[in-house]
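Our consortium's second objective concerns turning raw sequence data into structural hypotheses that experimental partners can test. To show how far this objective has progressed, the report includes one record in full. It was chosen at random from the queue rather than selected for favorable results. The single chain below, 471 residues long, was entered without modification.
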Amino acid sequence: MSLDTPYEVTSPTGTPDRGTSHEDTSPELLDQLLTRQERRESAARTYARTLPVAPVRALGAQVTGADGRTYIDCLSGAGTLALGHNHPDVVAALRADLDSGVPLHALDMITPQKDAFSDELLSRLPGGLRDEARLHFCGPAGTDAVEAAIKLAQAATGRRGVVAFSGAYHGMTVGASAVSGPARMRSTVGADALPVTRIPFPYAYRCPFGVGAPQSGELSARLLENFLTDPSSGLTEPAAVILEVVQGEGGVIEGPDAWLREVRRITAERGIVLIVDEVQTGVGRTGHFWACERAGVTPDVLVMSKAVGGGLPLAVLAYRPELDQWLPGDHTGTFRGNTLAMTAGRVTLRTVAEQQLPERAAKLGERLRHGLRQLAEEHPQFGDVRGRGLMNGVELVDPDAAPDRIGSRPADPAFARRLRAACLRQGLMLELGGRSDSVLRLLPPLVITDAELDSVLERIAAALRDAERAE
């Protein structure tokens, strides 16, 4: 398969642009925008603090800021933009809708756009969900879909508890925070009302069992089964087990296929609803259309958002029909009928499948990790390079500190922050995640060009030199 993208995005010289100036941009405009944002917006701002960029134009994997600089975007809206910014097919479909006078808001009433999106989504679902699943459209964010999935499992089973995994990130609302790992999220008022039991996620580099891969996955699944079968474990039979196949915000930590298959076996045998959160991994990101497909696993409930809306707000559940025990209004929301998001999502789902972008992501991801591992040979701060497809991470460590029993060194969050800032100076937008925010995360759009991918590696190499000089 060719590695040419569906559409090329280059500067006038034919190479990714590091700093083209535009007449309607200036450093002064950037300063004005950032100053007003800081004065007007809440202290809960995140990306705006660490990436002082004010985007004014974007296409593909490139973003031009208000100061005239152009960046390669390896954040992609935290994985939202599978087709990059302003893909021409998505833009054309949205313009056609806008020109036709379709209702932009329809609550949960059916529209031709929603019907077409549902057809496309159902045809792309994994395993036994394909064509047979029930769909539930949620509020426009993944966190609301997680809330809905938990409520659905509780309604279908008559049980309340949930088993979740260490390091998880499922969203910021109360129920989603409760099943997430970070302490700052679990401290949300009311999060302790949901009975949650936590199992160690199989994290090879920082193995909670001190054995590393692949035994970590085996022990994680065995512990889950033991908790469920031992009458003295203290765990009441739960309504659901919720997991990410690859933890994203948790640091790009990949769950082994054998572990996922065991979790599926354990939950199926005991009538426990398996919820797989594919908000960030879905729609081709990991080299398969859905991350759970590589292991041959079909969940009971699939949680989707981000890329499924083609860059516009959309969140949806797909689940086995026999779980549909809700009464009308059991989970609702005003903005679950976004017509433009349905259109953008339909075009995105079709384009990702027809242009074999999951396969492309797998090939480009291998190439990216190979380049990062070459950098690791010269820069010992790269403790671990990992990922699937175009969802990749680099664990940044203190190379002078003593390793633990399996050879892993402690995180170096200070160096991680310096490296992120140096990457931005090199014209590369990316973010940190994982324990202590010490994992450099790369989530470029699936349509990133070969030249842009090479430039990403070049810019990281230059940023590494800058960050090392700053020590």
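The partners drew two points from this record. The longest strand covers residues 382-388. Residues 1-22 have pLDDT under 50 and may be disordered. Both points have been shared with the crystallography group to help prioritize constructs.
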